[in-house]
Specification:
Elements lengths: L1 H15 L5 H9 L4 E4 L1 H17 L6 H22 L9 H27 L5 H25 L6 H25 L2 E4 L1
Parallel strand pairs: 1-2
Helix pairs in contact: 3-5, 4-5, 4-6, 5-6, 6-7
């Protein structure tokens, strides 16, 4: 009973002292995801592959599970690379770079199909989109770390910082533009 009271107080405090206004909460509830992918590879090849892939998933697989597995793939491959190049100054064995490349492709495929799976299973929600983009933002950090380690940028810490800041700023700007316009745009 004590634990229930703690949770009740947390929920009450969140409702009363939320960082989001009532208008913002209303907009969040009314949000519908809309994107436009005009990248050359997506138009020519990847959309067909992703549509084929999502049809192979069992209906019981939750879209958020796909999102989380993609994130964990990036974490795991980054840890493997960091084992061989902890300060981003050493060359790792070739198989490690192959694992990083395959994990990036695997992550991108899962990220491109989690929303398709949500629509296919009729489980798409704004919260699911928030989880997806939250995991994407964390994945971005691990992907930048992989690139910096693979390029042995440990000798140039300011370049690493600029690389990370640039990637973070681009991610933020894309989502800010989506917030303002209502559409997340990829590609040309």
């Amino acid at each position: 009973l004590r634990m229930f009271e703690v949770f009740e107080r947390i929920i009450t405090a969140f409702k009363e002292e939320s960082m989001l206004s009532q208008a913002q909460l209303k907009r969040l509830l009314e949000h519908r995801y809309c994107s436009q992918d005009r990248s050359i590879l997506s138009e020519l090849f990847m959309n067909n592959f992703w549509n084929w892939l999502v049809e192979r998933y069992p209906l019981w697989i939750a879209p958020n599970a796909l999102t989380f597995v993609g994130l964990m793939t990036n974490v795991a491959s980054t840890l493997i690379l960091a084992w061989y190049s902890p300060d981003a100054k050493q060359t790792a064995p070739l198989w490690v770079y192959l694992i990083c490349a395959l994990s990036l492709f695997f992550y991108q495929s899962l990220d491109a199909t989690d929303g398709k799976q949500a629509r296919r299973t009729e489980t798409a929600t704004p919260l699911g989109e928030l989880f997806d983009h939250g995991c994407d933002s964390v994945s971005q950090t691990f992907i930048v770390m992989q690139i910096c380690m693979a390029l042995q940028l440990g000798y140039y810490p300011i370049v690493v910082m600029l690389f990370w800041v640039s990637a973070t700023l681009l991610f933020y700007c894309a989502h800010w533009q989506a917030y303002v316009s209502g559409m997340l745009r990829f590609g040309r």
